[in-house]
Specification:
Structural class: mainly alpha
Number of strands: 0
Radius of gyration: 22 Å
Number of helices: 1
């Protein structure tokens, strides 16, 4: 590929480090969104279906 003057990169494109960084970025981006959404869903279910017995585990059954 053509090298750009004045620009440096952290890793070479298509190297193992490049794929490692892509993997870490994918894990972070794909992991944080469901965590944030399911937290809200879990909280609403606790408020809506709270029967006073069984605790948190009753929401999963």
């Amino acid at each position: 590929m053509k090298e750009m003057k004045g620009r440096s990169s952290l890793v070479d494109e298509f190297s193992p480090a490049f794929y490692g960084l892509c993997t870490v970025g994918g894990i972070i981006s794909a992991g944080t969104t469901p965590l944030a959404i399911t937290h809200d869903v879990f909280k609403v279910n606790m408020q809506a279906f709270h029967s006073g017995k069984g605790g948190v585990w009753s929401l999963y059954c």
